[in-house]
Amino acid sequence: MIKYDTFYMQCPRCDSWLEGHLVKSEMVNKSILYSDGKTLNDNYITEPQKIIQCPACSHWFWVESYTEPYVTYEKPEVPYYNWNHWRFFGVHFNSVEGRLALVEHYKQYLQAIGNDRDKELYIRRLMWWAYNDLVRNNYQMHLDYLFSGKMSFNVWRKNRRKQKLGRRIFMKNHAEYIENLKALLLLVKGRYTPDDEEYEASILEIIEIYREMGKYDEAQKILNTIPRRTHYIAHIESEVKKRHDFVFLVVG
Ligand SMILES: [Zn+2]
After folding, report:
1. Count: domains in the chain
2. Which of 61, 121, 149, 244 has the fewest Cβ atoms within 10 angstroms?
3. What is the whole-number distance in angstroms between the Cα of residue 108 and the centre of ligand 1?
């Protein structure tokens, strides 16, 4: 069964065709949620890629949503670049180097967007997730993960090396990571009022940003104002109490 809708769009500068996929939400088997809000459906990030860099001419452009007439579902009659050529700007996402390259892309776009706060919020949030990708799956390093049988010993050992390298690089870039979180916090704070649909999610995001910045008292102060304790919130609170500042797996 095909789990995607395939769409096509053209680079506004050189007219090259690019092919992309949208995962059909009703076909998703497995969703993974991390504490920073990054969500994967069958391993694909649910947040749409709004910045596209053309693999033919390097021109980059903004796509707010993959809808017609901007995209078409009709296959062009000329050759096109497949998704891997432009997805994550063509970086090799599974390697530590690729993840760091992704951060560099976001830095570059940030400089180019000027004073657009909506775009800045989008980029800074994705940049946060990209930094966290370096350490996101650190839980797989632990022995209990090996004993869970999800990886063979050799795969686990190899993956462990990658996780450790990711962690080292993450710590090396920690000051920049915090700078980004500070700027992100300013963009999210006060953006929504309790009447807005996004309000509750934005409060959770603010708590998580404080926690990852190591500002546990600030995080706890907001947690104290929330009467409801979902699994998610309870987990964040327990990490705040333990004074842990890393991203963690919530569901998956
Ligand atoms: Zn182009």
Report:
1. 3
2. 149
3. 18
Residue with the bigger pLDDT between 28 and 102: it is 102
If asked whether residues 183 and 208 sit together in one domain, one would say no
What percentage of the chain has pLDDT greater than the value 70?
100
Q: How far apart are CA 58 and CA 18, in angstroms?
A: 13
- Give the Å distance between the CA of 163 and the centre of ligand 1: 35
* CA 214 to ligand 1 center in whole angstroms: 42
**18 C-alpha vs ligand 1 centroid, how far in Å?**
9
* 14 CA distance to ligand 1 middle (Å): 4
Residues contacting 186, CB < 8 A, separation 6+ = none
Do 17 and 82 reside in the same domain of the chain? yes
Contact 90, 53 (CB under 8 A): yes
Cα of 79 vs centre of ligand 1, distance in Å, is: 14
- Where in the sequence is the domain holding 146, given as residue range(s)? 114-188
Whether residues 2 and 81 fall in one domain: yes
Q: Is 127 part of a structural domain of the chain?
A: yes
